[in-house]
DNA sequence: TTGTAAGCGTTATCAC
DNA sequence: GTGATAACGCTTACAA
């Protein structure tokens, strides 16, 4: 009767190598140990196929080499890329990654955080929308794109500058009456600054603009656009949209109403989405530096120091020409 | 001096409630306990904000309520959706999910599996390409889309039938000379059956067809197509592609060469990709039942019984019309 | 430098 | 039904 696949423990390794338990532990934790011992231990470990049990270690040390990420969804160009980049970056630091999805539902977000806390994660990277968010368990927490009231660091694109760039670009491309269209959660977040930057540039440069805001959802936005066009009050020649997705929706509606993009109206979105199938930009857009966002988030969480972490880190964005402006080849 | 945020343990709860440690454990594990005790324990737990420590529990029980998923990448329409569905499904069973990405690199795959084994995951759901894959650690393992040599269950779309459906549909839509184009890893996998089903239908129904295979990559495939068109040997009026992505690539090349889709050539892909921005099908396609794939994979892993799990589970596919066939409105 | 032993927070076994 | 007590696999003072 075979030994029934028993998973070898440190004790087994110690016995096999003929050394004390503590010595084995030291070898696996990089503490100095007599060379001959180290070799014996390593050989014994290899022979037995030993791997340290992270659960036992985690229990003892309260560190688990595990980070959790919390996303509204995965099946989405921006979120999937961000998720992938974060996982890759953590992996390169030898960390495992828990992933949860919340649907932007505060209840689900809270539940995730509880679960994650229970799993003794070393930290949380979250893109969350809970206005009442409260970091239970005192775990290092980094937020992406959503700034909490000073309680934890937020990593985000430089949304403000992005808004300015968009306005400037539209103007440079000949637009004289601009519109900023946004939808999104009513919760104030970093992304609101896209609009503020846009406004600021328009005001500073005395460019005429309007803002159209659909708090609830995209349908409402489309509805408003249609009304304006049908009323004849739609006289814009440049639109900045808070996301690429919104841009596409609006463009399709404008097309349907006989307005051509970019001939009649030029449009710039936000995200820098690339079409998966063609590799081309979905639209003209302000590109978010996703890889960097991920790298910085991971770095911040791994070097977390509650005293000394900055509360907001903005990463630079840039304009990418696409098929919705006249500078597209 | 405050108690420095000490996380309460079962012992604390027991003390607070004035009961024995074992009683608290029973309450939290649903074992029968005197009603008055249960109430005292629950109140004490709430008061202290106690949550059971999954690491300690995992160490004791060797179950962690954690599943790992291993994907080639996340930033991809099919994989991101699959990943999200699996996470959601696991979450609904109160499981946490580790996610790793491997880039289809066998070395990375092996590394992931090692890490995962070390973290004492309760099971692995993987979409892997390692021909020499070997399930170390004897962890329940479910493969998606890739059948190993009988060693573990594989969940997949009914690729064979999908191929048949595609051939039949093209024929129904008037195509008389068909082509099957595939790229992909040289490792034999479930997806190869797409071609077999296609061939089978053509043979059974005496429809003329060819197969073009680019083992290495997409560029090579595009090259071959171009050659055929330039040679004048391209006389197909219906193409079945092993993935939607490949379809788009080929379509773009054909367009460039002056061939119109679907007027001159009709095309059907595989995956059922929906354009994220418009919500419309990217192309005519055989749809994979992603949610179901996820559900079944999770179910299989959670009810794993090495004796009794089927080695292959095929889920039904269906044809979805899109802009690359003439039945598209 | 090496070995010993005391926990870490749970669960499971047994007497009571 | 309840409550001591011994593991689980590992780290870490501390003693040798």
Helices and strands in order, then pairings?
Two copies of one chain form a homodimer.
Chain A: H1 10-17, H2 21-29, H3 35-48, H4 54-61, E1 66-71, H5 77-92, E2 96-101, H6 106-118, E3 123-126, E4 141-144, E5 154-157, H7 159-172, E6 177-183, H8 193-204, E7 208-214, H9 218-231, E8 238-241, H10 244-256, E9 266-271, E10 285-287, H11 290-302, E11 312-315, E12 318-320
Parallel strand pairs in A: 1-2, 1-3, 3-4, 4-5, 5-11, 6-7, 6-8, 8-9, 9-10
Antiparallel strand pairs in A: 10-12
Chain B binds a DNA duplex (16 and 16 nucleotides) through helix 1, helix 2 and helix 4.
Written description of the protein model:
- 2 copies of one chain form a homodimer.
- Chain A is α/β, with parallel strands linked by helices.
- Chain A folds into 3 domains: 10-52, lambda repressor-like DNA-binding domains (434 Repressor (Amino-terminal Domain), Orthogonal Bundle), CATH 1.10.260.40; 66-157 and 291-314, Rossmann fold (3-Layer(aba) Sandwich); 159-288, 3-Layer(aba) Sandwich (Rossmann fold), CATH 3.40.50.
- Chain A has 11 helices and 12 strands.
- Chain A has helices spanning 10-17, 21-29, 35-48, 54-61, 77-92, 106-118, 159-172, 193-204, 218-231, 244-256, 290-302, and strands at residues 66-71, 96-101, 123-126, 141-144, 154-157, 177-183, 208-214, 238-241, 266-271, 285-287, 312-315, 318-320.
- Chain A has a 6-stranded parallel beta sheet with strand order 2-1-3-4-5-11, with helices on both faces. In chain A, strands 7-6-8-9-10-12 form a 6-stranded mixed beta sheet, sandwiched between helices.
- Chain A is elongated and about 90 Å long.
- The relative contact order of chain A is 0.11.
- The interface between A and B is large, with 51 and 51 residues.
- Chain B binds a DNA duplex (16 and 16 nucleotides) through residues 9-11, 14, 19-23, 25-26, 28-29, 32-34, 37, 52-53, 55-62.
């Amino acid at each position: 009767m075979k030994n029934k696949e028993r998973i070898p423990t440190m004790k087994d390794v110690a016995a096999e190598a003929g050394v004390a338990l503590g010595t084995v532990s030291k070898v696996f934790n990089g503490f100095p140990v007599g060379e001959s011992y180290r070799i014996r231990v390593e050989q014994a470990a290899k022979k037995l196929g030993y791997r340290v049990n992270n659960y036992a270690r985690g229990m003892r040390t309260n560190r688990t080499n595990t980070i959790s990420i919390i996303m509204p969804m995965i099946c989405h160009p921006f979120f999937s890329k961000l998720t992938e980049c974060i996982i890759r970056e953590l992996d390169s630091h030898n960390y495992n990654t828990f992933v949860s999805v919340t649907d932007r539902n505060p209840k689900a977000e809270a539940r995730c955080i509880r679960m994650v806390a229970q799993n003794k994660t070393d930290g949380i990277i979250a893109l969350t929308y809970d206005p009442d968010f409260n970091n239970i368990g005192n775990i290092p927490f980094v937020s992406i794109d959503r700034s909490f009231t000073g309680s934890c660091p937020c990593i985000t694109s430089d949304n403000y500058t992005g808004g300015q760039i968009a306005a400037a670009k539209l103007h440079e491309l000949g637009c004289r009456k601009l519109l900023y269209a946004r939808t999104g959660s009513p919760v104030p977040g970093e992304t609101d600054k896209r609009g503020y930057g846009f406004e600021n540039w328009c005001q500073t440069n005395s460019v005429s603009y309007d803002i159209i805001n659909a708090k609830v959802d995209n349908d409402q936005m489309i509805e408003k656009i249609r009304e304006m066009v049908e009323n004849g009050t739609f006289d814009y020649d440049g639109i900045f949209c808070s996301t690429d997705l919104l841009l596409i929706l609006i463009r399709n509606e404008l097309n349907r109403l006989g307005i051509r993009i970019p001939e009649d109206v030029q449009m710039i979105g936000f995200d820098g989405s690339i079409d998966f199938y063609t590799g081309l930009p979905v639209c003209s857009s302000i590109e978010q530096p996703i890889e960097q966002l991920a790298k910085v988030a991971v770095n911040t969480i791994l070097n977390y120091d509650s005293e000394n972490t900055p509360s907001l880190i903005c990463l630079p964005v840039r304009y990418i020409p696409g098929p919705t402006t006249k500078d597209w080849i």
